[in-house]
Task: inverse folding
């Protein structure tokens, strides 16, 4: 899951007896994904492109329409690989069928809001010559938190306040901040720790790792407020 955006323009061909027909031309950022291996980001994948579609609508209530769209999208997929398996960065441009259903409500005669589900196919699959069936793995995350207003510490500053301590079982993560720390990875000597999880405010958790000593370098990854991976370094105490 990721935040996306788009712009479009349209022309109303037909609008009578509660039925509407329009053509739309637009540009969309179709989202991004990261591939991970052993707690590390090894690949990034982004999609964006233009689309042309025909939209049919029906007015069910005053100002409320339901609609369906069908068209074609020309999508560019960009791939960035980190230095493993000798992969090189690249991109692909592919055409895809585009289908969508949704609802549209006219808040004002000049302003409407939409809720839409959109579907694409044959876009984004990475196909190197020596392995025609390989693809990018996608990891989806959903989180919902209630955060009290006027916390004294900025969330990005809070990440730096977390203390990592060497223990016989691995790393004790001591979060004495008012924020949840949604950890998804911890590396010690390029080896991923086990039992990595979210650490609640003013609490502790142990991430399992072997041979961690005071002064060792650690690398952590967590999911920030925008749903993106946030990476950082720490020294075990």
Result:
């Amino acid at each position: 899951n990721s935040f996306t955006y788009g712009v479009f323009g349209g022309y109303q061909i037909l609008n009578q007896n509660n039925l509407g027909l329009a053509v739309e031309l637009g540009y969309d950022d179709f989202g991004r994904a990261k591939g991970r291996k052993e707690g590390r980001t090894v690949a990034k994948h982004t999609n964006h492109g233009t689309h042309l579609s025909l939209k049919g609508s029906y007015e069910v209530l005053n100002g409320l329409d339901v609609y369906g769209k069908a068209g074609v999208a020309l999508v560019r997929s960009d791939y960035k690989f980190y230095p493993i398996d000798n992969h090189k960065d690249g991109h692909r441009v592919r055409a895809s069928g585009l289908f969508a259903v949704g609802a549209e409500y006219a808040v004002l005669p000049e302003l409407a809001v939409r809720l839409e589900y959109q579907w694409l196919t044959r876009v984004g699959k990475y196909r190197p010559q020596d392995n025609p069936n390989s693809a990018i793995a996608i990891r989806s995350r959903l989180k919902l938190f209630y955060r009290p207003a006027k916390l004294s510490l900025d969330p990005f500053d809070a990440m730096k306040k977390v203390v990592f301590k060497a223990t016989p079982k691995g790393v004790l993560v001591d979060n004495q901040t008012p924020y949840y720390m949604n950890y998804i990875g911890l590396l010690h000597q390029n080896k991923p720790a086990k039992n990595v999880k979210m650490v609640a405010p003013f609490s502790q958790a142990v991430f399992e790792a072997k041979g961690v000593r005071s002064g060792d370098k650690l690398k952590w990854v967590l999911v920030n407020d925008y749903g993106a991976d946030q990476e950082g370094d720490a020294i075990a105490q």
